[in-house]
Amino acid sequence: MSLYNVPEASPSRIVGVFRFLLACPDGKATRARIEQIMAPEGLTLDDTPDNSDDADTETPGRGVVQRAIQEALRLGLVQEVDRKSVAVSEKLDKDYIKQADRLLPLAILELASSPGNGNADLCRAMAWMLAQDVKTAPGTWQAIQGRGELVKDLDMNNARYGQLQHWGAYLGLVWRCGRERRPASVPDPTSHITPRLEHTLGGWRREFTAPEFLQKLSQWIPVIDGGIYRAELESQGLLKPLATAHVSSALSQALLRLRDEGWIEATHSSDAEVRLLASEDGDVRVSRILWAGGAKAVRLPSVVLLAGTQSV
Q: pTM to 2 decimals?
């Protein structure tokens, strides 16, 4: 099982389990207590008495929460204390726990994309979505279901496409256009990249070559250009490799937005290796990318970090 094929494992439920545990003493609670709070008796689907103290018994009306807890365990976001109790995972980065509101999506993508985690199916589908052109991406199930081979290769159906939409939006890799009928999803990793850069690069200015910056980004976010899941789809013929030096439409738009908002500076020198960002006005040539230090950057002219090496 995985977040992709268990509809009950929606972001709101998985994150709800985690946030409830954060509020508990020592970050742990019994499964029965979590179910009681997240599915109160008045909201259950029938009047069956609560017998969820037995961890092997699925109480009607609380089965949704029970399956969410199980997927949070499989994901590694929480861990089992004993047969009846669970707790916040001790393996999580402490910053992710302290700043859960902003950084929890980073933790979840790290866990889900780790080899052997069991969520490769969701990561493959996400990599496919992020490879689509932002202007023509099939943003609804109706636009995708006619592509028989693709649907088969990505093991996709209506419910799994819904999971892709929900998790993509929560992780900051997709945004949903809220039209009155058939809201569409658009590939856009901006909201994930920003906190990732802030958390990983910190408040100091750092300069990279464009190829180096994009390589690091693909290691941190393996569902974008150059990432292991994008490479897997290309090797299987499900995606065409990008033309030499080109950056995908979705990642290009994210980087251009970060540039326009002042998070990064993107420049080009004629004698340096270039990357081409797709733009409405034509390709933007970039050979160096400067991380400007984030919203609370230390902006001292005499302090510069070049590719992660401090010089004063």
A: 0.86
